[in-house]
Design brief:
By secondary structure, this protein is mostly helical. 73% of the residues lie in helices and 0% in strands. It has four helices and no strands. The longest helix has 16 residues, at 4-19.
């Protein structure tokens, strides 16, 4: 079974490939700090449910 951390990291990488945006731009899209976005991309950190919702919403909008 794939972990939530792995799914979030995969989604961030796919979003970056699809949009050709920098991580700074993606952090703004997701309304998260750049340092946390780096952590999430490396399957680290501990995003709250609201943060996961923000990420998913931004991905769905693009």
């Amino acid at each position: 079974m794939e972990t939530v951390d792995s799914v979030i990291a995969r989604l961030i990488l796919a979003y970056q490939e699809k949009t050709n945006k920098t991580l700074s731009e993606i952090a703004l899209d997701f309304d998260v700090t750049l340092s946390n976005l780096y952590r999430y991309r490396e399957q680290g950190g501990n995003p709250r449910a609201k943060t996961i919702d923000k990420i998913l919403t931004a991905i769905e909008e693009n």
